[in-house]
Amino acid sequence: MEPRRSCSPPFSSALLRTPPFSAMVLLKVIKYLVGCVARVCQELSQNMTSLNKMFKYHLLEIS
C-alpha cells in the first residue's frame, strides 16, 4: 500500500507571501538608485542656491 500524498505545497505559506529572491534584489537595487538620484538632486539644488547667491552678490557689486 502506497503512502498517501498530501495536496499541500512542500513549502510553508510564509514563503508564498514573500517575493522571490531576484525580485527582492531588484527592489533593493531600485531603492539604492532612487536614493542616489535623490542625493544628486539635493546636491545640485544646494549648488544652484550657492551659485544664485554668488551671482546676486556679483551683480550688486558691479552696480
From TrEMBL:
Protein name: Uncharacterized protein
Protein's organism: Drosophila pseudoobscura pseudoobscura
